[in-house]
Amino acid sequence: MLVKNLRFNGLATLAVCLVFALGASVSAQRDHGNHGSWGGSRSGGDRGSYGSSRGDVQRSTSNNRGTVHYGTNNNVSRDLRTGRVSVDRMPPLRRYEPHDWAWNHHDLFHDGYRWGYYHYDRWWRDDSFLFGFYLFSPVGPWVYSPWYYYPSLPPYISQDRVIIVNSEPSDWGSINDGWREYRWTPPSGGRGDYTDLDYALQDLTIVFDDRNPEAISRLCPSSGRVAIYSDGRYGYSLNSGDFYDTFKDGATGPRTTNYRILQVKTNGHDVANVLAQQDYTDPWGKAVSVFHTYRLVQEGPNVVIRSFGTYQTRPW
Fold first, then answer.
1. Is the pTM of this model over 0.70?
2. What is the edge-to-edge ordering of all strands in the sheet holding 134-135?
3. CB-based contacts of 279: which residues, under 8 Å, 6+ apart?
């Protein structure tokens, strides 16, 4: 009888402990919202301390070609006669002949197409960009740059740098169907547990607000491709090295005043679609907003960008 009572009491105690542990687990999941299985739950939010734990990518110029050499100057801000323009749409693809460029070197627009760029610095030259395959006029085989809406950045890139991936969704708006809202709180020092996605979202703000090169390296994949969208439509994909160069040019060029994460939706475990807003001051001193979309994917210890897009106006 004594042995039976001891066994019964032991089983009862074990059951109570299991119920308590299960309740604590459910409570923790409620406290952390819908983080699901995103990896890397950590405490604290010191920008300077979490890089090594996320597997920093050490990277120089991504295509290993050395110094960029265009040997040209398509910065129209050197001509003080050029007044402010706004870039409000992408016209249909059209290829001009080389002689069309000769007479148009003082104008930022012709027939609705951008020609050159208007940099904040009058003395900025084409060779100062990191990416070595921009095109500055719609001449020859070209596609729109990811940063076409920014007058201070080059408008086109060479078509031979891109690849069309048939499996990419053609419409960004269809990607979010059935996905769950993710409640993001920016990590802050010493309070709460945060996932790799939380830190990746914080990196996005650091990239534009602080022009932080380490955050750029953490977000950009070291291999594979990144899909490029414009106004919600898939255009093409860039290899990881070319994306790194163009992303760094775009993130560090415009004078950002505020970068905000507006919406995050996830598939519950390893993919997140993000809508963000960049407020910046254009080269003429006017406040402008452009909207960005990202597909962030957990790949090992890192959350990296696998698609990037721009909208002139907020899509939703």
1. yes
2. 134-135, 156-158, 142-144
3. 256, 257, 258, 259, 260, 287, 288, 289
CA–CA separation, 296 and 270 (whole Å)? 8
Q: Which of 281, 245, 261 is nearest to 146 (CA)?
A: 245
Q: Is the Cβ–Cβ distance between 124 and 152 less than 8 Å?
A: no
Give the Cα separation of 181 and 159 in Å (integer). 36
Give the Cα separation of 82 and 75 in Å (integer): 11
Q: What is the CA radius of gyration of the chain?
A: 24
Listing DSSP states for 260-288 in one string gives EEEEEEE-SSSEEEEEEEEEEE-TTS-EE
Cα-flanking dihedrals φ and ψ of residue 51, to 5°? Answer: -60, -50
- 185, HSE (Cβ side, Cα atoms, 13 Å): 14
**Minimal CA–CA distance to 195: which of 309, 263, 59, 296?**
296
Per-residue pLDDT 10s for the chain (316 aa) are: 434 444 445 545 544 444 444 444 433 333 344 565 677 655 444 433 333 334 433 343 444 445 789 999 999 887 765 667 788 777 766 666 555 555 455 578 777 788 899 999 999 999 999 999 999 988 889 999 999 999 999 999 999 999 999 999 999 876 666 789 999 989 987 666 899 999 999 999 999 999 999 999 999 999 999 999 999 999 999 999 999 999 999 999 999 999 999 999 999 889 999 999 999 999 999 999 999 999 999 999 999 999 999 999 999 8
Residue at token pair 């870039």: 87
E-state strands within 69-138: 109-110, 113-114, 134-135
**Helices within the chain (DSSP H only):** 2-31, 99-102, 196-210, 213-219, 240-252
